[in-house]
Write a structure and sequence with these properties.
nine-stranded mixed sheet
């Protein structure tokens, strides 16, 4: 809900045809440039169930199963064999620390020379494995980065998304990471009705109160994501929108990133175009990274709201949002 009332529902004629929009215009597509970041989805199981979780993670949802360390290693092997030049391996979930093989695959990625980015809620699953995590930090230093989900700079705002009694464990985990010298960042949602300036000022107070040496004004250190509501209306992105919006298709996540998932009951992992759309059949690209190196049609509301119009990226600093 926005400050001016509920958003209009999505026009059911939109996002139906991968080739054309509801108005009959050619749909925008993004050419694949290079695999700069490979995301590994460790599984949709999570210790909490957040409101409006884009991937529907929860303590009971195993729609995306735990990927095994040897399956992740096969992806790393393909990167090395084909000299793809990938720099970063990102780990997301669910909650990655719930996967029994997570520390093994994280250590494998770091041991091969990749940078690693771990997305976590910093709660009990991470806390229970902090000895192994600390050993990796001591071995690999700043090549291991941890981004903690703090959905708002206030307890009330955070727990409105994450549920009751989630604030203190998250803050405790964040402070443990700080005390042990981890390369840190925070990821938050910017709720409707709060400007970016207000959100960053709030996080500046949050960080100062806890002695966290992060810059709330740096979009790499405090990543603010727009709200995602696939049921709310949004304009479709046409081939002509790139110049009208002064946005480059090469800046979109799907130009330089892919995600590997393991579907429940599947014999092997598959590769999808986007971290935000693991359950959408139209965004599944194949069984190998080579098969997935092809264009992506922007045929989902998240493509418009989060990426093109919102200017956001799961991998790092969002670019300036389109006017």
């Amino acid at each position: 809900m926005s400050a001016t009332g509920p958003a209009a529902p999505l026009d059911p004629r939109k996002f139906r045809d991968p080739l054309v929009t509801a108005a009959g215009e050619p749909r925008a597509r993004v050419e694949f440039r290079a695999l700069e970041t490979l995301w590994i989805n460790t599984g949709t199981l999570c210790n909490i169930a957040c409101a409006n979780c884009y991937i529907e993670s929860s303590p009971t949802n195993d729609r995306l199963a735990y990927i095994r360390a040897d399956e992740a290693a096969a992806c790393f092997d393909e990167i090395e064999r084909d000299r793809l030049g990938t720099r970063t391996i990102g780990f997301t979930g669910g909650e990655p620390f719930m996967n029994p093989g997570f520390l093994a695959m994280l250590g494998d990625a770091l041991g091969r020379g990749f940078e690693a980015l771990v997305l976590t809620n910093a709660m009990k699953p991470m806390w229970n494995r902090r000895a192994g995590l600390l050993a990796l930090r001591e071995r690999f230093g700043a090549r291991l980065r941890v981004r903690v989900s703090v959905d708002h700079h206030t307890r009330a705002g955070h727990e409105a998304v994450r549920g009751p009694r989630t604030w203190e464990p998250t803050v405790a985990g964040l402070e443990w990471l700080r005390d042990n010298g981890f390369a840190l960042a925070i990821a938050a949602r910017r709720p409707a009705g709060e400007t970016e300036a207000e959100a960053r000022a709030g996080f500046a107070r949050f960080l100062a109160a806890r002695g966290l040496a992060l810059d709330a004004g740096d979009p790499e250190e405090v990543v603010l994501f727009p709200e995602m509501d696939a049921a709310a209306d949004v304009q479709e992105i046409t081939a002509g929108c790139w110049s009208l919006l002064s946005v480059s298709p090469g800046d979109q996540m799907c130009a330089t990133a892919r995600m590997v998932v393991k579907r429940r009951g599947a014999d092997r992992p598959s590769v999808v175009a986007c971290t935000l759309l693991p359950h959408e059949p139209g965004f599944e690209l194949g069984a190998t990274l080579a098969e997935a190196a092809r264009p992506v049609r922007l045929n989902h509301p998240h493509c418009a709201r989060f990426c093109v119009l919102g200017g956001a990226s799961c991998g790092g600093a969002p670019r300036a949002a389109a006017a």
